# Entry
Amino acid sequence: MAYPGYGAAPGGFPGQQDPLYGYFSAVAGQDGQISADELQRCLTQSGIAGSYKPFCLETCRLMISMLDRDMSGTMGFNEFKELSQVINGWKATFSSYDRDHSGTVEGHELQQAISAMGFNLSPQAMNVIMRRHSTNGRIAFDDFISCCVKLRALTSQFQSRDMSRTGQATFGYDDFIQVTMSL
# Structure
C-alpha cells in the first residue's frame, strides 16, 4: 500500500538560507524548538495557512505529535520545514476539491481528496470522519488538515505493526491507548 502526499524529507539549504527559518527563529526559544502555540503563530505569520483562518491550537498539537520523533512535545526547524511541505501538499489537494472556493469541502469531495492522497477507506470510515470533522456536512480547511494529520499518523503507526503488509496489525491495549491518545 502506498500513501503518497506526505511531503519530502528535510533537506535543502541550511536553515539560515531558508526563507522559513526567519519565521521559525522569530518564535523559537533558546533551545531552537517551538511549542504548539508558537507553531500556530509561525504558520500564520509565514502564510502557510494561506487565505484560510489560522490553525486552531489543537490542530497545531496534532501537527507536532505527527512529527515529534523525540517525543519532546516540540518541533525543531527540520521538522517545521517538513511540516510546511506536507501542509502545502494538503493545501493544494484541498484547493483542488474546494471547487466553489468556499473554504470548505463536502463529504463526496473529501472522499475524492482522501482517495487522491492514496488512502482507501470504507464508506463506514468516511462516515466516522465526516461526523468528527464536519459542520453542517462541510469540512473547513483546519479540520481537513486535522483529518490528514490523523490519517497520516495513524497509518504510520498501523504500518509499523503490520509487518507482513496484510492490512492486519496486533496492538496491545496499552500500545493502542498510547497511539490513539498521542493524537
